[in-house]
Amino acid sequence: MADLALNIALTVDVIIFRLREGELQTLLIKRGLAPYKGRWAIPGGFVRPDESVDAAARRELFEETGLKEVYLEQLYTFGEPKRDPRGRVVTVAYFVLAAIAQAAPQAGDDAAEAQWRPITDLPPLAFDHASILAYALKRLRYKLEYTAVGFELLPEEFTLTELQTAYEIILGETLDKRNFRRRLLEADPPIIEETGKYRTGQVGPRAQLYRYRDDAVAEVRARRLFP
Amino acid sequence: MADLALNIALTVDVIIFRLREGELQTLLIKRGLAPYKGRWAIPGGFVRPDESVDAAARRELFEETGLKEVYLEQLYTFGEPKRDPRGRVVTVAYFVLAAIAQAAPQAGDDAAEAQWRPITDLPPLAFDHASILAYALKRLRYKLEYTAVGFELLPEEFTLTELQTAYEIILGETLDKRNFRRRLLEADPPIIEETGKYRTGQVGPRAQLYRYRDDAVAEVRARRLFP
DNA sequence: ACAAAAGTGTTGAGAGTACACCCATGC
DNA sequence: GCATGGGTGTACTCTCAACACTTTTGT
User: Fold this and answer.
1) What CATH number is attached to the domain comprising B92?
2) CATH number for B218
3) CA B13 – C1' D13 distance (Å)?
4) Which of A123, B17, B120, B146 could form a disulfide with A222 if both were Cys (CB 3.0 to 4.6 A apart)?
5) B7-40 pLDDT tens trace
6) Cα separation of B98 and B57, whole Å?
7) A113-127, A196-210, B144-158, B168-182, range with the lowest pLDDT
8) Is the domain of A36 the same as that of A109?
9) What is the pLDDT of residues A136-156, one digit of tens each?
10) pLDDT tens across B110-138, in order?
11) B8 vs A contacts (CB less than 8 Å)
12) Do B12 and B84 sit in the same domain of this protein?
């Protein structure tokens, strides 16, 4: 058995999304070593023999960003033989949603250099990372439409306008304010609840703050193909 | 890099579903070697250094069943350190839908013994295969509700009653005949088309045969969480 | 003749979508 | 006082879901 495994290395790659400055951003690191030295890449690293693959993803995330309590989901395993010029490397990709409040301003010191980039303006990436990132983005948009993962990108307390804006940024389309609010406030079972607090300071009336309910059912029943 | 990889082996496990005898069945093989010697398991094997992970899954499928042209989809990667008592083995699980016509009556000669089992009556399984199978079944049901993968389990030409029965078996609920047919026949863009042929021989009127359109959009737009 | 399966429409309820104005507050 | 943003209701359309009978054919 051991000799069959000898030539395959296992890594994790962690695509980290956050909302900032009105755009959806992802963290990239500049590679300090060959191959692709100096190219931007998705943060990641080797899975250690004694840790689960999920744990490896969380460890890499923490090392790169200091983030711990986040939404993390396994995305896909990429296993083409030639995807890494060094040899046979199979990677398990994950994606992470970092809330605005958590999102570390700077990356950790593991990487030579790190940068948050808007997903609309990405540099050339190392390995097959461009297609991995494209896949992650597709999945994020998809999930956002029929589950409540969007809340993971917001601080614990948020106004309805902030929530709507987050959805609009990610989906790339505008939504109707009244319909949006009605759907959210009249959902049964409820999805969000009032905190009783208000956001003030901005121009205009104060805005009610809400929080996501822990017991919320985070999924809409999909429209079925057949009745 | 090599030493980090040394102790991790990579396998594929392939959950194969088919419809037969009015039930949803999956193929299990009896293990000839320790560990779990004599226990039933999901078919699978090691990924070779020169093949992609997808290719390994297709190769294992072919070796176990002789099947080639099937619907194959990557399911999830299971990477707990202790899931295999021999050492560190990470497995990439796939699921396959075998059409009625294709489904090999017997498994290949790679395994000591193989058996199609209804998913409602499974024996104890080796490793963490019970939970992998449960996950595969959940995903199959889920996909079936909002995509057209169900056609992959049927022969190329089928009657609407056969299609409806297939859905009822997998979902475990009965569907309304008129609503089912209307949705399917009036879908725009169309999903199926008439072959012009009929199924005869059974008691009752002859039944129109249909085929799945290659250009069909296999997905319903999910009901969105927000308008 | 009888049992089994194929095929075919209508209606009522609920969800989805489009749309515009007033008021509070900071500057 | 004016620009910005918060908050609110209604009417129309469309999709969904429930429901029963007639006809054909094999035995």
Assistant:
1) 3.90.79.10
2) 1.10.10.10
3) 49
4) B146
5) 789 999 999 999 988 889 999 999 988 889 999 9
6) 14
7) B144-158
8) yes
9) 999 988 888 777 888 889 999
10) 556 889 999 999 999 999 999 999 999 99
11) 5, 8-10, 47, 49
12) yes
B8·A5 Cβ contact <8 A: yes
- Residue B21 CA to chain centroid, in angstroms? 16
Contacts 24+ apart (CB under 8 A), A132-137: A132/A13, A132/A15, A132/A42, A132/A75, A132/A76, A132/A78, A132/A91, A132/A93, A133/A15, A133/A26, A133/A42, A135/A75, A135/A76, A135/A93, A136/A15, A136/A17, A136/A75, A136/A93, A136/A95
First-to-last C-alpha distance (Å) of chain A: 49
Q: What is the mean pLDDT of residues A190-210?
A: 92
Distance of CA A5 to the CA centre of its chain: 31
Both structure tokens of B113: 């013994």
The distance from CA B132 to its chain's CA centroid, rounded to whole angstroms, is 13
Residue A192, domain extent: 149-225
CA pseudo-torsion sign B137, B94, B13, B4: negative
Provide φ and ψ at A101, rounded to 5°.
Answer: -65, -40
Residue A214's nearest CA partner among A191, A187, A188 is: A191
Tell me which of A146, A169, A186 is where a domain ends: A146
Number of domains in chain B: 2
Closest-CA residue of chain B to A177:
B227
Distance CA B11, CA B30 (A): 17
How many Cα atoms sit within 13 Å of B202 on the Cβ side? 10
Query: Quick check: pTM over 0.85?
Result: yes
Ramachandran class of B211: left when φ > 0, alpha when ψ lies in -120 to 50, beta otherwise? beta
Verify whether the Cβ–Cβ distance A222 to B224 is below 8 Å: no
